[in-house]
Specification:
The protein is an alpha+beta fold. The protein has 2 domains: 213 residues, no CATH class; 73 residues, Sandwich (Immunoglobulin-like), CATH 2.60.40.10. It has 3 helices and 16 strands.
Length: 341
Amino acid sequence: MNRRCIIIFLSLCLLTSIYAADFSITSVEAAPVPRTPGVKAGDKVRYGDFLALWETDYPDAITPQNFLDANNTLWVEDTVLEVSGSNITYETLTHYRNGTEKTRISHVDVITGSGSGNLSFVSADLIAGDRIYAIGELSESRMNATIPATYAGLTRETNLLNITEVILEFTTAFWSEFYWDKATGFLVEHFWSYAKMDEQNYLALGSIRYKMIDTNIWIGEHVQDDVTPVAVAGPDLTVDSGANTTFDASNSRDNIGIARFAWDFGDGSTATGMKVWHVYDRSGVFNVTLTVEDGKHNADVDFLAVTVRSRETPIPSWMGPVGLVLFLAILVSIWILLRRR
């Protein structure tokens, strides 16, 4: 590692922070957003897939304890104990790979963000541009986007927040991504990273990521669901044969979440996934079928038509002037032959 790494990292983070600041300024709520918890007592969320990376060029460095703890964590489970007004009290159980466990009790207010568990829960039904919390220290932060994302096998609407902080006087940059389930407001994924250069020009880089792997809120035998999802395959398409064509079902929706997206491209090929790609190797009109299914096997179907055109072999650029010269040469030859007669 060298100084260029930190310079590039800090520059990218600085640019991102400028963009985020501009987003915050231009995103204005049309009306006050109601702030209500989207969870109830007994709701559980389990996190897993912990990955912590830390590296430094300092020869005698010791890995920080929080990175060691993250890599030694098998899973973490948050259980809502009580919901009172806008305040959520919950218990966190951490299960380590060696079998040991520890617990703690936290709380957070979804209006102010106050409490020891802020950013673990936000208000339900926020959308892009809404403030994370209505008042308090975090009130200037706004949701960057609302996107479909898949956790624990179901695709649901997810809110995203990017937070970037660059402290140039300490040559340090922090970058964090939070993802919350839109309907309930609980955290489903978190990524955090930093880069720091000390006074001796030693660089340290670190990151921690984890995500939700299970929940009893929308998954489980006790969850009743007889609502049929809505499949949206997208508009009809016209493409060239041999072109890599994108099929996007992200506008499909369900009251709980979509567990499976299945595509039949009409030429004998199939694929699964919310967004997929396919290449048609022959011309014609193909009827594409999208089937979406939720966790309780309720299903819906939508169709689109793809018109595939034969791809014409382009004429090389050099053929234009060469062809013209040949044509003129033929005309001149004919004119000379006619003159001789």
